Prior knowledge:
There is one protein chain. The chain has 322 residues and is of the alpha/beta class. 42% of the residues lie in helices and 12% in strands. It has two domains: 13-55 and 227-318, Vaccinia Virus protein VP39 (Rossmann fold, 3-Layer(aba) Sandwich); 70-211, no CATH class. An eight-stranded mixed sheet has the order 3-2-1-4-5-8-6-7. The chain starts with 12 loop residues before the first helix and ends with a strand. The relative contact order is 0.15. It binds S-adenosylmethionine (SAM). S-adenosylmethionine is lined by residues 5, 7-9, 32-36, 38-39, 54-56, 228-229, 243, 245, 253, 255, 257.
Amino acid sequence: xxxxxxxxxxxxxxxxxxxxxxxxxxxxxxxxxxxxxxxxxxxxxxxxxxxxxxxxxxxxxxxxxxxxxxxxxxxxxxxxxxxxxxxxxxxxxxxxxxxxxxxxxxxxxxxxxxxxxxxxxxxxxxxxxxxxxxxxxxxxxxxxxxxxxxxxxxxxxxxxxxxxxxxxxxxxxxxxxxxxxxxxxxxxxxxxxxxxxxxxxxxxxxxxxxxxxxxxxxxxxxxxxxxxxxxxxxxxxxxxxxxxxxxxxxxxxxxxxxxxxxxxxxxxxxxxxxxxxxxxxxxxxxxxxxxxxxxxxxxxxxxxxxxxxxxxxxxxxxxxxx
Length: 322
Ligand SMILES: C[S@@+](CC[C@H](N)C(=O)[O-])C[C@H]1O[C@@H](n2cnc3c(N)ncnc32)[C@H](O)[C@@H]1O
């Protein structure tokens, strides 16, 4: 239950949250670079009061939209590559939540830059989208010689969207499996044109389903804001969690991030609040307290730092209570 988001911590969120909650007495946390909110959502599930903040106004608007009002009907409409490009170039011509929706749900690898599908697949993907979302099979005829129309018409006539999605997925897999034995040359030609993968995986709907989980969040324990991390007001007993853009990566989520300035800020705020930071490397006075290597969990201390590898997630800690 989070926004499918670049650098999201969905896979390790529960381990992170359990780790922090065993070390801290406070039940208030500020997730200052919350991104897709996977960590915030997990803290809420563990009974924390959460201040979720991010500087990306589109993503925050999307989260507020879904949490407060659910998924709007327009999120089920097809977004073409041309529309996507227009949103990338003119993000402020649209409502901020819609821009956030298009940039996250419809981008390749959640990059917020590149369209989800290659141009050669767009027609087939759209046809599949229309079957599943609107029960409309008519676009299939534009890309095939009608050999599979009856099957797809039948799937399109099914009652609900989820049923249609699962049926299309199963149909695609069945056809794929049987293709060598029972399909003739024309059918194989047709399948090539149709492309099975677009019909069996409707990524944008899978992502939408993940996003819709945000509706179930307990909002009594949540405050969402869109500020620079330094401007968020921190309650006295609050734990701070910072999932910063990694220093060694080039991806800086559109907003440049000054790591040295951030270290200085932690040194200051860490006089009154315990601070946890997700990063690969930090200056020496930040203590490495948790290392997650693939699926295994290794607790470390300062002298046991390991060689950097990309499948290691690390958590640092700073609290200078004098
Ligand atoms: C690694 S991502 C966070 C991912 C998030 N934990 C999740 O699970 O989806 C880093 C986030 O830092 C945010 N960010 C960058 N600079 C910021 C700033 N100065 N203040 C607040 N947030 C910032 C980016 O917008 C981005 O969403």
